[in-house]
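User: quick one, fold this
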Amino acid sequence: MFRRRKPEDEFAAAVYKRVGEQARESALFEACGIPDTLDGRFDSLALHAALMIDRLRREPDGEALAQAFFDAMFKHLDLTLREIGIQDLGVGRRIKIMAEGLHGRALAYREALNGGPTPLAEVLRRNAYGGRSPEDSEVVARLEAYVRDYVRGLDATARNDLIK
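Assistant:
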């Protein structure tokens, strides 16, 4: 309540809002096959958040921005869990599981995008489908193309335009 807001908090919250909108785009669920379930929506959010955190880290104050983004995201997820009726004692445990899930996915996505041993399509198949790997390789290929385009777009976007 009396905590002094850091300058990056407002920007990071706006970036998080934009990422949340992007993660809910209907094409991800319809064309790319991400299930429109609670788990599928989290996986889509985690994918977009991981890519945005990597992008934010390239700014001069990137670590502070990335942390502020992470904080905004998990503040929102905490509120969301409470709104859907998760009891107070269960919220902390679920947030911890979500944070660990985001971290693991972020590492896997980063490694795959940087030419690691596991192809991006396989990493997406394991992590972006709400625990239900799709049988249709075309939907995974569409998601991979989307991710590569999204990363290129993030790389080409100036800092202040990330909220647009």
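User: anything notable?
Assistant: The radius of gyration is 16 Å.
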